[in-house]
Amino acid sequence: MLSMKNISKVFKTDLVETHALRDFNLEVKEGEFVAVTGPSGSGKTTFLNIAGLLEGFTHGDYFLDGVNISNLSDNKSATIRNEKIGFIFQGFNLIPDLNLAENVEVPLRYRGFNSAERKRRVQHALEQVGLAARMKHLPSQLSGGQQQRVAIARALAGEPRFLLADEPTGNLDSMMARQVMELLEEINRAGTTIIMVTHDAELARRAQRNIQIVDGQVCDFTMYQHGAVADKPHLVAGDKRAVEPSSVEAEEATS
Amino acid sequence: MFFYYLDLAWRSIKKTPLLSLLMVLAISIGIGITITTLNVYQLMSENPAGDRSDKLHGVQLWSQGKDAWKEFNGQVTYQDAYNLRKSDVPVRQTAMFVTGLALQTEDPDFSPLLESVRVTDSDFFEMFSVPFLYGKAWDKGVDTEAMYQVVINEDLNKQLFSGENSIGKTLYLDRKPYQIVGVTKAWSPSPLYYDVTTGAFKDSAKLFVPFSLAPIEEYQSWGNNQSWKREPINNYSQRLSSEMHWIQYWVEVQDDKQRDEYAEWLTRYVEQQQLIGRFESPEAAAKVSNVEQWLKINEVVPEDNKILVGLSVLFLLVCLVNMLGLLLAKFLKRAPEVGVRRAIGASRAQIFSQHMVEVGLIGFGGGLLGLLWAWGSLSMLSAHFDLEAALTQLDLTMWIVAPSIAIFAALIAGVYPAWRICSTNPSAHLKSQ
């Protein structure tokens, strides 16, 4: 589904070069729920932006659903984002002037669906997140948890194969966070591949697989959370031994 | 997507009403001034002959002596007009000038009016497409066998006869009775191309009388009279036989071939006049010009007017630069929203289009408001500077031209801000929201 080989991303200014990602390797299979953790500044968001085709990369190969992402035109990237990828952000990123239905409708507009199809999908997506009755409300009239559910509905409306979530529960209290997480799990069970960046170890533990990014490199894999567990992780680039999330959390706490 | 973008544009304008109003004002002032000058320029330079422009030709003769003016004169002498009328090449032709006559009716209580009267031939009316309300022009025979007949216009007919059919009624011009044979509908080409000698922007005459009456009634010329030769003109007969230029002469030809044929006829006429020693200058020649050429030759649109249009366009550019700054501020403020739209599937081109539609809508608003400014400016010019009404009315085409220019100008101003906003890195704003 997603394959990154030796991806590197360098931000250059006149004075300094910053390596946000270096020799980054990752394979994500269809239907997986992957949690990405790592300390602040480690490159999690850069990885997510590259995975979501929001940013280019300096070196390496990236294949998404069999498509080579290197040197894609802006139009092609936008089409892939629109058709295959759904985004969920920490800050919800709903458009404040549009009501819920209009917010959910935005990606469908860019996709060129007719009015009836848009209406059907908006209705269905909002029903999935339990907010169909409030489709005429503005985002400011909702709680944070409800706003995030609308954002999820917007991501789902286009029926993407791939959901990228950047700290989706970061701005929510624990109860709301749990609800959103349950929703994501439900979506994943329905077949959508999810990559979720999070700081929350508990949430990460609920994913099928954990990836830790440190200094722009994949540090450790946990192959199927509920399966075999290896010993303490070594934060070495390319190390592919499995590790328990609690260890990741411990490492994170010390970093 | 256009209507979706239009909806987004309208929401955006409503969201920032003051900023939007400033932009609309900026462009409307530029458009208002541009349209004002353009309107005057267009009305001045309009070719009112339309598709007959290539058929109607003004005639000029280089009949002056060696030491006289070194260019063709816009008018001809009575002698030449008399001779030119003998040509059977043109389809129609007319000699003409303007005079002034005291107008009276059969009503003893009617106070006499001094009116300008066009002295012309019967062909005048068909040549210049004069529409008739009642009756028609006098018969062609009257052009050679003078009769006291008159054609009046609709306004005068309303004034004198309450708009009723006045054909057959009598008018008195300088105390002579004239029978009304035709009443023209409201008609006043602008510019008054067939006689630009005393200003091209005036109303057409209210009365028309046969040219053949001129030697009998000794009508005085109210137009330009230009002499190059010192010669005694103590009576009307001397005026008619003088070398004074005071008659306008126009012909109508079917096509270019007939025009060339007529030009040849004129060349032979000039040679003939040289032979009899009348046209003394070796440069003696004849020239025919269609309406378009005639308007240029007579500089109906002054050079100053073109400069004024240029300056107003420069002012519009200054307004656009202001608008560009405001647009840039407005659009860049929207970068986080654009980031979201980009993330969920909008291409750069779609974001660019969305913003250009908004700019176009602002431009359209500016165009409409600019029209109001232009209308106000023209009314003010009309009221304070006593300009001809023909120059200060807002031309109908401006209702399309103004919004079109405004939208086009706004789109030009909007290209850079729209390009900037669609080029911003979406990921840079997704975290910051």
UniProtKB/TrEMBL annotation, chain A:
InterPro entries: AAA+_ATPase, ABC_transporter-like_ATP-bd, ABC_transporter-like_CS, ABC_transpr_LolD-like, MacB-like_ATP-bd, P-loop_NTPase. Keywords: ATP-binding, Nucleotide-binding, Transport. Residues 2-240 form the ABC transporter domain. GO terms for molecular function: ATP binding; ATP hydrolysis activity; transmembrane transporter activity. Pfam families: ABC_tran. GO terms for cellular component: plasma membrane; transmembrane transporter complex. Gene3D superfamilies: P-loop containing nucleotide triphosphate hydrolases. PANTHER family: ABC TRANSPORTER ATP-BINDING PROTEIN YTRE (PTHR24220:SF648), IMPORT ATP-BINDING PROTEIN (PTHR24220). Belongs to the ABC transporter superfamily. Macrolide exporter (TC 3.A.1.122) family. This is ABC transporter ATP-binding protein. It comes from Shewanella hanedai (Alteromonas hanedai). The lineage of its organism: Bacteria, Pseudomonadati, Pseudomonadota, Gammaproteobacteria, Alteromonadales.
TrEMBL record, chain B:
Residues 311-426 form the ABC3 transporter permease C-terminal domain. PANTHER family: ABC-TYPE MACROLIDE FAMILY EXPORT SYSTEM PERMEASE COMPONENT 2, MEMBRANE COMPONENT OF TRANSPORTER-RELATED. It is a multi-pass membrane protein. Signal peptide: none annotated. Coiled coil: none annotated. The lineage of its organism: Bacteria, Pseudomonadati, Pseudomonadota, Gammaproteobacteria, Alteromonadales. Keywords: Cell membrane, Membrane, Transmembrane, Transmembrane helix. The keyword Transmembrane helix applies. It comes from Shewanella hanedai (Alteromonas hanedai). This is FtsX-like permease family protein. GO terms for molecular function: transmembrane transporter activity. Residues 20-268 form the MacB-like periplasmic core domain.
